[in-house]
Amino acid sequence: MTLRPTDRPSTARGDDDRREPIDEAGDGTGPGPRDEDGESWTGGRPDAGGLPDSTASAGPSVPGADRFVSAVAVDGEVLFAGPSVPAVLGVERASLAGENLLDRVHPNDREPVSDALSAVATDRVVTHRLRHANGGFVWVESVVDEELAPEFGGRVVTARRVDSESAFPERFREFLEYGTDLVTVVDGDGRVRYESPSVEEVLGYEQGSTVGRSPLGYVHPDDRERVTERFYRALNDSDATPTMEYRYRTADGDWVWLESRTRSLPADAAVGRLLINSRDVSERKARERRLTDRNERLDRFASIVSHDLRNPLSVIRASMEMAQLKGETEPLERGERAVDRIDQLVSELLTLARQGSGIDEPTEFALGAVAREAWDTAGSADARLVVGADARVRGDRGRLRQAFENLFRNATEHAAQGGAGGGDAHATDGGEDAPLTVVVTATDEGFLVADDGPGIDPAHREEVFDPGFTTREDGTGYGLDIVREVVESHGWTIGLRGDDADPASPDDVRVPDGACFVVRAPDPDAADTGEPWIDG
User: Fold this and answer.
1) What is the pTM of this model?
2) Any long-range contacts for 386-390 (C-beta under 8 Å, 24+ apart)?
3) DSSP string covering 151-183, please?
4) DSSP-derived 3-state class of residue 401
5) CB 318, CB 293: distance < 8 Å
6) Structural domain of residue 143, as residue ranges?
7) Most confident among 161-165, 177-181, 256-260 (mean pLDDT)
8) Do 336 and 398 have their domain in common?
9) Angle, nearest 10°, between helix axes 282-325 and 333-353?
10) Closest by alpha carbon to 436, among 367, 373, 498, 513?
């Protein structure tokens, strides 16, 4: 939906009905328009001399020269042309009389002008363009009398030239000209009064071509009922400011997605009733469709993996249990480990495939509480958890617990195997026989998870979050990828200590020298409304 400042005069509607008295003789001798003191205006008469240079871009310079009166038949024939015609259109009044007015109207504006002249018109105020003698067009607002004038056999039409310079300062017109958003103004009847120049680039319509028409006629049929309800609610309720997304027809007959925000104009605004700001969101909608399709494919894949692998795994495990009862366990140990690995792989693939569903209902909770819950599930008897400084978190509690579980498994498994990067196994910070220590603590930018295990080989620092990367023979390579997905789904970032400036941690919390994963997130003041944050 789109609209334009020059489509309305700079004065209030109350001035529209002040017409110059008609010179029925047609020779300029009849009474002319008068000012507020009753003095006759001579500057607008063709026999008064000294007429201004009337061009398509020049505005009127004398009272009465910004409008003219005519009598027009229903079929568009000009039956009478007032004395101010030369000042507005640059042609002699005699040459306009007998001409079809619609031939002088811009082709894109003829339909609303013809409708206004008809016997059954519902709107007899039209903003449109008329051809000037110099070949250009001037914008006018025409007010058509409801009743026929018996002395002419047609309706009296007062055409008043729109003065865009006084109504819209140059700096605002330049802003609209170079802006990419569409600016539309509609009147109380829901008809377009103004459309910004960007309508040509975004929708392909010539500026002003939809003036006088309802924008709802261009809305996709499947969206029209919904948009119509919100449109008229905004039109009739000054407090309503709905945002709408819908498909809109272009000049080529294609459809683009628009996002429109509405705002009521002041009751005394001369330009119209409702302001609509719209932007083309077709690319965003296309990305959303691709993402939806991708997530649907991943869900199908995840379901297939779950169904096709879990059932035979159950059979294998049952067979192993039976063999164990008979005492034939040694040949089956390797197969049991393989089953465990496949089971873990299926679980992690399912988790990874469903990460794209987003965070629906973020809640507030304590960081330390979630870490302890995760440790109860994924911790090791040969390791201990230390929770340092706590923090309040707004996010998805279940997913964050899942991220902690994967980080804890990564720490305990690689400590036993000799490091996430394949380094040699060595004692923890506490000594050869001391348990592994895993520290979770809030920082001034989020939180970190560190351990005193062997750490990460510098050669593998760039790969640790890549899907499928692992240095363990029985590893799946998806544990840290899931952690990254969880963190990024919150709008946060995760990296290794040393990738950026190390976060400041509390003085009373000792951070081990092994692997250290750093999560950075905004605090409540920096986060957008409703978005996840960490308040340490």
Assistant:
1) 0.42
2) 386/437, 386/438, 386/439, 386/440, 387/439, 387/440, 387/441, 388/439, 388/440, 388/441, 388/442, 388/505, 388/506, 388/508, 388/509, 389/441, 389/442, 389/443, 389/505, 389/506, 389/509, 389/536, 390/366, 390/442
3) TTTBEEEEEEE--HHHHS-HHHHHHHHH-SSEE
4) helix
5) no
6) 67-161
7) 256-260
8) no
9) 160
10) 513
Rounded mean pLDDT, 327-336: 65
H/E stretch holding 487 reads helix 479-489
pLDDT tens digits for range 413-461: 877 655 443 333 333 344 445 579 999 999 999 999 999 988 888 888 8
Q: How far apart are CA 502 and CA 507, in angstroms?
A: 14
Instruction: Indicate whether 74 and 177 sit together in one domain.
Output: no
Which among 87-96, 292-301, 414-423, 499-508 has the top mean pLDDT? 87-96
**Confidence category of residue 351, pLDDT binned at 50, 70, 90:** low
My answer on whether 378 and 518 are in the same domain is yes
Q: Where among 308, 332, 350 does a domain terminate?
A: 350
* Dihedral sign (CA 507, 508, 514, 518): negative
- In 250-321, beta strands by DSSP E: 255-264, 274-280
Q: Which of 256, 281, 306 is the last residue of a domain?
A: 281
49 belongs to a structural domain: no
- Whether residues 210 and 227 share a domain: the answer is yes
Contact 55, 134 (CB under 8 A): yes
Average pLDDT over residues 206-210: 85
What average pLDDT does the segment 213-233 reach? 93
Token match 């008043």: residue?
160
**Neighbouring residues of 416: CB distance < 8 A, sequence distance ≥ 6:** 382, 425
User: How many angstroms separate the Cα of 277 from the Cα of each of 114, 175, 186, 244, 259?
Assistant: 29, 14, 12, 11, 8
CA distances from residue 194 to 208, 215, 237, 277 in whole angstroms, order as listed: 7, 11, 21, 12
